[in-house]
Specification:
This is NfeD family protein. Keywords: Membrane, Transmembrane, Transmembrane helix. The chain is an all-alpha fold and 90 residues long. The protein has one domain. Helix 2 packs across helix 3.
Length: 90
């Protein structure tokens, strides 16, 4: 029952957080947060369920964390970025 080892979930969360650096968009960071929370729940003995339910809870947590991150750090509604100078201008 290696999936029940919380350290594996925490290592997976760190890998997903590193993937977020290469592919930004808040999704992998939300997934990393959900996997980290599930790993902590397993380490602390707070998770009595099996793997299928753990994956469902992790998926729901991913959506919630992603929405929270987009709400807090995302672009504001109606905000338009206007470029006034080009990087190639001298």
């Amino acid at each position: 029952m290696s999936w029940a080892n919380g350290w594996i979930w925490i290592i997976a969360a760190l890998i997903l957080a590193a993937v977020e650096l290469a592919l930004p968009g808040w999704f992998f960071l939300g997934l990393a947060g959900a996997v980290l929370l599930m790993g902590l729940a397993l380490l602390l003995g707070l998770w009595p369920g099996g793997l299928p339910m753990a994956l469902v809870v992790a998926a729901v947590l991913t959506g919630v964390i992603w929405l929270a991150l987009r709400r807090i750090f995302g672009a504001k509604r109606g905000e338009v970025r206007r470029w006034t100078r080009d990087i190639n201008d001298n």
